[in-house]
Amino acid sequence: MKKIKLIYTLPIIFIALVFALAALFLAKSSQQNIIYIAGAIKKNIWAYDFERATEFLKKYGMQAKLVNTNDPNEVATLLSDPKSKLNTAFVFNGLLTQEQAVNLYSLGSVSYDPIWIFYNDRVVGELLSLEDIAKQKVVIGTKESDSYFLTKKLFGLNGIDIEGNSNFTPLPLDERLDSFLSGEASVMIFDGPFSGEVIKKSFYAGANLFEVPNANNYTTKSDFIAVTLPAGSMDVNGTMPEKDIKLLATTTLLVVRKNLAPGLQLGILMTAAEMIRQNPYRNDSAKIEFPAPMFGSSIAVSPTALKYYAEGPPWLVEYFPFLLPYWLF
């Protein structure tokens, strides 16, 4: 029986090796296996996950270098500059213009990142509108942050200029939290995934989470989407929050330059999928599958990504993952 299994197994391994070597031979000899990746700000979520991500990329024979950037606009500029090394980034849907996106591909959406607005109702009472928020002492992200970019956009949709309002104070996230918990500020605004520690600390301190009125209306006027934070989803006792809360969120896209080799695109996408699989996203008590292709954005979906979503990764990658950078997918 063992001999029979060996007879069938050896040809399969041989054929797989032939295909892998053929793919390697057909690849351009000058092809790079290094990606240069950035998020919207210096200490974004990718920076925190970067070391873990590099381990996945090493398995695929890829290297990654993190490019620190100052703000979302710098990311957009570097991506559209042919002289820049930056070739991979996380960006918000709607950040890039059609002109900036012409040489880029989207590998898909990777998360929903809500805008969190916490306030101290024991001091200011119940706040019912963004106009009410703007009258309080508010701590927001620094001017070079993605949080500031999104806050300015949200309040601007309501005719409120945060740059001309002295009630808004830009601070790094840790200082924002300290200022809010100490009572110096009565409102704190930041953006980030549902699993953030700052969210839990705010709830545990007894802060109220502001629900943007008519959240669904923003989906027709902007790139924001409405998501629901389910009641009881933020603690093991099922008490925080006390009710479902509608939030506004941005969709985060993983984008690459069009001239990035298909094998590298595939390696990046498979790494993102693996990392998300370890920490699945849930909304309205339902699991949301990320990454996922996003149509209707200013950035076209990569043909490599479309093939991956339709067919999955090449089966030979399971046996020869280190050849992925040279794969003609």
**What is the number of independent domains?**
2
- CATH structural fold name of the largest domain: D-Maltodextrin-Binding Protein, domain 2
The CATH architecture name of the largest domain reads 3-Layer(aba) Sandwich
**What oligomeric state do the depicted chains represent?**
single chain
Shape: globular
- Unreliable stretches: 25-31, 40-45
Largest sheet data = 11 strands, mixed
Number of helices: 12
Strand content: 15-25%
CATH homologous superfamily annotation of the largest domain: Periplasmic binding protein-like II
Question: How big is the Rg?
Answer: 23 Å
Fraction of residues in helices?
Answer: 25-40%
N-C termini distance: 37 Å
Structural class: alpha/beta
Helix and strand succession?
A: HEHEHEHEHHEHEHEHEHEEHEEEH
Fold and architecture overview:
The protein is of the alpha/beta class. The chain folds into 2 domains: 2-109 and 252-326, Periplasmic binding protein-like II (D-Maltodextrin-Binding Protein, domain 2), CATH 3.40.190.10; 113-250, D-Maltodextrin-Binding Protein, domain 2. It has 12 helices and 13 strands. The chain has helices spanning 2-26, 45-59, 72-80, 98-101, 121-124, 130-134, 146-156, 173-182, 197-204, 218-221, 262-278, 303-311, and strands spanning 34-38, 63-66, 88-92, 104-119, 138-140, 168-170, 187-191, 208-209, 225-229, 245-257, 281-283, 286-288, 300-301. The strands form 2 sheets. Strands 1, 2, 3, 4, 5, 6, 7, 8, 9, 10 and 13 form an 11-stranded mixed β-sheet that branches. Strand 1, helix 2 (45-59) and strand 2 (63-66) form a beta-alpha-beta unit.
